[in-house]
Design goal:
The chain has 195 residues and is mainly α. The chain has 8 helices and 2 strands. The chain has a two-stranded antiparallel sheet. A hairpin with a 5-residue loop joins strand 1 and strand 2. Helix 2 packs antiparallel against helix 3. Pfam families: Thia_YuaJ.
């Protein structure tokens, strides 16, 4: 769990230097990013089920969604990237180098797009999950076409394969977010602090 926090620290240190210094707000953003990426890594290890060539259902996306909703698209994209890199470093299913990039850093970076729809975050969660799904489907078409049953379109096969775990994970994520938003004070905490 130290790897995501170290990557976050380096990114914010150098990013803070470029933007003219580190503020209390930036420090809080950095700490929350590290904590939420670490939580996503931990939740990734608690899988409800896992597919044979990769993909699983867990609560791993929720911390990245929260990060993007709270701090915006840029921070959400960075958090998703760090989560994807962390997965690569801690036991991803890698068959080809480009497949590894598509299925991990690229796919999970796309979860940060949730921040584009902060006020309508259920739509943002759905759109970001679909974007992640597109990266996985593309990876399936390019790198796993050999597993497509004879006579079936490779795009349909990849869509069915990846949808079989992403759709339940989306439903689970939206359900948990619905429960969280009903908790007293949760939505106030989702607003970033002022300077």
């Amino acid at each position: 769990m130290v790897i995501p926090q170290a990557l976050v620290g380096l990114w914010f240190y150098f990013g803070g230097q470029i933007r003219g210094g580190v503020t209390l707000k930036n420090i809080r953003m950095m700490v929350e990013t590290g904590m939420l990426v670490g939580l996503a890594m931990a939740l990734n290890m608690l899988k409800l089920f896992e597919m044979p060539q990769g993909g699983s259902v867990s609560l791993e996306m929720i911390p990245i969604f929260i990060l993007a909703i709270r701090w915006g698209t840029g921070t959400g994209l960075i958090g998703g990237l760090l989560f994807g890199v962390g997965q690569l470093l801690l036991g991803a299913k890698i068959y080809y180098p480009m497949q590894a990039l598509l299925d991990y850093p690229i796919a999970f970076t796309l979860l940060g797009l949730t921040g584009l729809w902060r006020k309508h975050f259920y739509f943002g969660i759905t759109a970001a999950t679909l974007a992640r799904g597109f990266a996985h489907v593309l990876s399936g078409v390019i790198f796993f076409a050999e597993y497509t049953p004879v006579g079936q379109n490779v795009w349909i096969y990849s869509l069915i394969y990846n949808g079989s775990y992403l759709l339940p994970e989306l439903v689970l994520s939206v359900s948990v977010m619905a429960i969280l938003t009903k908790q007293k004070g949760f939505m106030q905490e989702m607003q970033p602090m002022s300077q």
